[in-house]
Write a structure and sequence with these properties.
alpha+beta; 6-stranded mixed β-sheet; 3-stranded mixed β-sheet; single chain
Length: 250
């Protein structure tokens, strides 16, 4: 962290490799408020929940700096970071063998850090960090013109762009801004997006190889939540939830 240059969070700015976004007076989500390095041992062992490992959204670790102040470290996690029995081979005494139980892999870099005493959050990617820490309140709303630009992207066919752009409330303006800056539309085709939607109880229509962006508010909201990766399944009940609010979806 000594070589990190902190930049106040700006959705329109792409930080250089040595830079990290900074948000001051950051309020941690409820699930993290009372967690410290002293409470980690109160949680169940992962061995009791092996069948739920694929539901992990992120890995959290606790450490202390030279002054003894606690810092919280975060790394994004998805099922590609899992080592499954029969799917990976490890070299053991000149012979390749598979693991007998699931294992996890860690990346070489952190995705976010909270300096607890200073209530300061450092991170590089809004889209990645927002999957495990709520950040939407810090995002700038998209203008009517910017919403129209998103709807005119080659990935979409909008049923009624005027209605969506002219009557968009703050919730929609934030999500359109987030989608614009996420890079999702540039890195994934309409067909790839539809294929990934199958497990999330969302119906996406394709016309001429493009996603039909619905004009009704309920359908538009659901599509934006999915595209911005704000929907996840509960590890135990398999219920669909909205990432930031933890409110059950309709």
């Amino acid at each position: 962290m000594g070589d990190v240059a902190e930049v106040p969070f700006d959705p329109g700015y792409s930080p250089d490799p040595h830079e990290k976004f900074s948000i001051g007076d950051y309020v941690m989500p409820d699930w993290l408020q009372d967690e410290t390095s002293q409470t980690v041992s109160d949680h169940d062992s992962l061995s009791l929940h092996e069948d739920q490992l694929e539901a992990i959204k992120g890995i959290v670790a606790f450490a202390r700096d030279a002054q003894g102040d606690e810092i919280i470290l975060f790394q994004d996690f998805n099922r590609s970071h899992m080592i499954k029995p029969g799917r990976f081979l490890l070299l053991q005494h000149d012979t390749f063998e598979s693991v007998s139980r699931p294992a996890l892999t860690l990346g070489s870099k952190l995705d976010a850090v909270i300096l607890r005493a200073e209530r300061r959050l450092l991170f590089r990617s809004f889209r990645v960090t927002n999957t495990f820490l709520p950040l939407m309140e810090f995002y700038t709303d998209a203008s009517e013109q910017e919403i129209r630009a998103v709807l005119s992207h080659e990935t979409f066919i909008a049923e009624d762009a005027d209605a969506l752009a002219e009557n968009a409330g703050q919730w929609f303006r934030k999500r359109f801004a987030m989608l614009r800056d996420s890079g999702i539309l540039e890195h994934y085709s309409a067909e790839q997006i539809v294929a990934r939607s199958e497990a999330y109880d969302i119906e996406i229509r394709l016309e001429q190889g493009k996603i039909v962006f619905p004009s009704d508010r309920s359908g538009a909201k659901r599509l934006l939540q999915f595209l911005n990766e704000e929907i996840y399944r509960g590890a135990i009940t398999d219920t669909l939830y909205e990432t930031n609010s933890k409110r059950e979806t309709d």
